[in-house]
Design a protein that fits this description.
CATH architecture of the largest domain: 3-Layer(aba) Sandwich
Structural class: alpha/beta
Number of helices: 20
CATH class of the largest domain: Alpha Beta
Radius of gyration: 32 Å
CATH topology of the largest domain: Rossmann fold
CATH superfamily of the largest domain: P-loop containing nucleotide triphosphate hydrolases
Number of domains: 3
Shape: extended
């Protein structure tokens, strides 16, 4: 840790010299001056951690110097030096942002204690800021890749809800990144420096999950040989992420509802309530509304969790982000493995884009990791994808080609098979968005009507059938 740098500002030479000597002996770097104007010049140059500032200076009042420095350099901690008769002014200075004040005459120990407290406070604030930056870098938007309008809408919702204490429900298919979004909400909130705890509600039995969430007292059940602190207590003042919340039993749902409404709960086996200020962010890949209608999920809890819903689109609905994600994961795993792979061929990228990715972003990430591990050349091609277990079904049982001509034929067949489905969905989506109006659909797709109609005929797309499906 660097020694603190202190500026002593006082028009009395004995005060300046005495403070300088005491602080130098403690290993601090010390500079002195006797006027307010000189203090402002030195403070503007930067580098000081703490300023010892006399309230009565020959040119500018200490109060005015304090106001100016606090506005220009809020990172500098100011300790006021005051006579007994001006203690009231020192209190006013504290309201303006001074860290502490010393009343003349003060002892060496009082001086050291005040300055060291200011330096420690500054260190903790800077560490906290560094930690917050690290969290934002790791779990902020820079780590959530995408420019598709649907994912940009998710970013906008995160920025709006994060500063609040609102309960959030994230809905999306497996692999869409629900926990990543929950962490982004946490690191952009006022709770960022506190705990973020994630619980998978599908991995524990109802009894164990209740004990995990709320804790238990000694002797609450067989095997409870000592008291256990629950996750709601650990996450106090922080954020609690409940993944797969649809898997909660009805009894646990009732207890969770009480926590959300009254901010209190009882550990298993206890007769006393505890309180918590944990922010709850939940996630599900199910339609909770339909579970409510079936009686499998409490309606009152559904409304309490669904205060601010965020829907994560599946990867097949934002195919334009697939190349960005693929290259992001490629760089990540190249760094991790030490390999040097320049990228994908055009045909390989087309194949990635045209694949449906039922496992969403998680599946794409795993596929790229497998490709990097197996690759022995600098450019990944379609055949590399075919060797990946997740992509083999697109070959429909074809054998690996043995000659260049067979390779080219396989590549053509592979692209035709995967691209045909994407082309058909493109036509259907355009028609459905325009309520079956072929002219409008063609214009929206930036195509001539004749070319659009040709695609409809090619893929046997019926206006009547597709509009009926959309309705």
């Amino acid at each position: 840790m660097q020694p603190g740098k202190v500026l002593v500002v006082d028009d009395e030479r004995v005060i300046r010299s005495g403070c300088r000597m005491v602080l130098l002996e403690r290993g601090m770097s010390v500079q002195v001056c006797e006027s307010g104007s000189e203090c402002l010049e030195l403070a503007a140059e930067g580098g000081f951690d703490v300023i010892l500032l006399d309230m009565k200076l020959p040119d500018i009042s200490g109060m005015e110097v304090l106001r100016t420095i606090r506005k220009a350099r809020p990172d500098i901690y100011i300790i006021i030096i005051t006579g007994y008769s001006t203690v009231q002014n020192a209190i006013e200075a504290m309201k303006l942002g001074a860290f502490d004040y010393l009343t003349k005459p003060f002892t060496d120990d009082e001086l050291l204690l005040s300055v060291e407290r200011a330096l420690e406070k500054k260190r903790l604030v800077e560490e906290n800021q560094a930690l917050r930056k690290e969290l934002v870098d790791r779990f902020g938007f820079s780590n959530i890749i995408g420019k598709n309008p649907k994912i940009m809408e998710v970013f906008e919702k995160i920025l709006k809800v994060a500063p609040t204490d609102c309960t959030v429900l994230i809905n999306g298919e497996n692999g869409t990144g629900k926990e990543l979004i929950a962490r982004a909400i946490h690191v952009h909130s006022r709770r960022a420096a506190r705990q973020f705890i994630a619980v998978d509600c599908s991995t524990l039995s109802p009894n164990l999950l209740e004990s995990e969430l709320f804790g238990h007292v000694k002797g609450a059940f067989t095997g409870a040989v000592q008291e256990k602190v629950g996750i709601f207590e650990l996450a106090d003042d922080g954020s609690l992420f409940l993944d797969d919340v649809a898997n909660l039993g009805l009894e646990t749902q009732a207890k969770l509802l009480r926590v959300l409404e009254a901010r209190e709960y009882k550990p298993v086996g206890s007769s006393r309530f505890k309180t918590t200020d944990a922010r709850v962010i939940s996630a599900t890949n199910c339609d909770l509304r339909s579970l409510v209608e079936k009686g499998a999920f409490r309606e009152d809890l559904y409304y309490r969790l669904n205060v601010f819903p965020i829907h994560l689109p599946p990867l097949r609905e934002r195919k334009d982000d697939i190349p960005r994600l693929a290259y992001h994961f490629l760089r990540h795993f190249c760094t991790k493995t030490g390999k040097c792979i320049d990228g994908f061929t055009e045909h390989a990228l087309e194949a990635l884009v045209n694949y449906d990715w039922p496992g969403n972003v998680r599946q794409l990430k795993n596929a790229v990791e497998h490709l990097v591990i197996m690759a022995d050349h600098q450019i990944l091609d379609v055949l590399d994808l075919a060797e990946d277990l997740q992509m083999k079904q697109a070959w429909k049982g074809s054998t690996i080609p043995k000659t260049r001509l067979e390779l080219m034929a396989a590549k053509k067949r592979f692209l035709e098979q995967t691209f045909a489905q994407c082309e058909k969905m493109f036509v259907i989506q355009a028609l459905q968005s325009c309520n079956g109006n072929i002219t409008m659909a063609a214009e929206k797709a930036d195509m001539k009507r004749s070319n659009f109609s040709a695609l409809m005929k090619k893929h046997r797309v019926s206006v009547k059938t597709e509009v009926a499906k959309a309705e």
